[in-house]
From TrEMBL, chain A:
CDD domains, per database record: PaaI_thioesterase
NCBIfam families recorded: unchar_dom_1 (TIGR00369)
One of the record's GO molecular function terms: 1,4-dihydroxy-2-naphthoyl-CoA thioesterase activity
Keywords: Hydrolase
Protein name (Swiss-Prot/TrEMBL): Uncharacterized domain 1-containing protein
Stored Gene3D superfamilies: Hotdog Thioesterase
Domain Thioesterase residue range list: 57-127
Organism: Halomonas caseinilytica
One cellular component (GO) term of this entry: cytosol
Pfam families to which the protein is assigned, alphabetical: 4HBT
InterPro entries: HotDog_dom_sf, PAAI_dom, Thioestr_dom
Length: 164, 156
């Protein structure tokens, strides 16, 4: 293993940087619990703005889609030989049961396969681990090194001094 | 009387009035991302709008809207459109969503229109079309299945 292969802690910092520059998820306080080539695990603290039905206290289904998109997208970076910009091609979400008010959300995602043009991922969302809320399947387009801005990797693994 | 989705009388009345805004007011996440109903021209279905909020950005470099926010917008549109278009007052519950991202969604207003392709007794299939400057060049399309729950007076 070469010395520039990032370890789990380096990936956790890199993916934290990746998700905290996203204004939408930063606004809700999304945090990275784990990140690496095996999987990413994110947590979103409960916020009443996540509701889709305020009287019955049910999570908005679109939040599940948004979180699965974010988690699947984050899982792509550590699974590539070098980080590349990869837009979402498509996303499928199966809603197993409604999320409920007051409990933090956990979302994990992993890369299933990587080809020259596509990264295939899948993710899972839950509040209580034994009762998954949704499953997502997202495919990402590889734009390749040529279409990835120079300094993308360096920005992800920038020195510690700029994190708060 | 609770003025809530599961209140059959309230749901029937707001539906009769075409008061989609009253439904949106009870969907906090839809309000947070800035979903509104633009117009409800006769026979043309509802036109939905997503405000280009800074908070909806998913890529600061381009910049572009968060794909998941665009998807949540389309799911909200499909739900509300179905509640109005269904034969009877129903509470749709999303079963699955499949979304294709066709173009970068820039930080400008996004519009969406829905089509109810099938309404069975238990399930509905809705197609959503979202665009920005040109309806013929969608930024995303989606299809959704909904389970149609009956709203009984006892639920209220």
């Amino acid at each position: 293993m070469s010395s520039d292969t990032p370890d789990a802690a380096a990936w956790r910092r890199a993916i934290t940087r990746f998700v905290t520059v996203i204004p939408h998820t930063r606004g809700f306080g999304l945090t990275v619990l784990e990140a690496g080539p095996e999987r990413v695990l994110l947590r979103l603290p409960w916020d009443d703005d996540l509701l889709g039905d305020s009287t019955r206290g049910l999570l908005h289904g679109g939040v599940a889609t948004m979180l699965l998109d974010t988690a699947c997208g984050s899982s792509v970076l550590p699974a590539l030989p070098e980080p590349e910009v990869c837009p979402t091609l498509d996303l499928r979400v199966d809603h197993y049961r409604p999320g409920v008010t007051g409990q933090d959300l956990h979302v994990e995602a992993r890369v299933v396969s990587v080809t020259a043009s596509v990264v295939f991922t899948e993710g899972r969302l839950w509040q209580c681990a034994e009762r998954p809320i949704a499953r997502g399947i997202a495919n990402f387009m590889r734009l390749g090194a040529r279409n990835t801005p120079p300094g993308f990797k360096q920005a992800l693994f920038a020195a510690e001094n700029d994190h708060d | 009387m609770t003025d809530a989705f599961h209140d059959a009388e309230w749901l029937a009345r707001t539906r009769q009035q075409g008061d989609v805004t009253a439904w949106l007011e009870r969907m906090p996440y839809a309000r947070r991302i800035g979903v509104s109903v633009e117009s409800a021209e006769e026979g043309d279905g509802l036109l939905f709008r997503l405000a280009p909020r800074e908070d909806n950005i998913g890529n600061v470099l381009l910049p572009a809207l968060h794909g998941g926010v665009v998807s949540a917008f389309m799911e909200t549109a499909a739900t509300l459109d179905l509640m109005l278009a269904a034969r009877e007052p129903r509470l749709p519950r999303v079963v699955d969503v499949s979304i294709d991202y066709l173009r970068t969604a820039r930080v400008v207003p996004t519009l969406a229109r829905c089509e109810l392709l099938r309404e069975g007794r238990r399930m509905a299939n809705v197609r959503v079309w979202a665009w920005q400057s040109d309806e013929a060049s969608p930024v995303a399309t989606a299809r959704l299945h909904f389970a149609l729950a009956e709203v009984s007076a006892q639920d209220a």
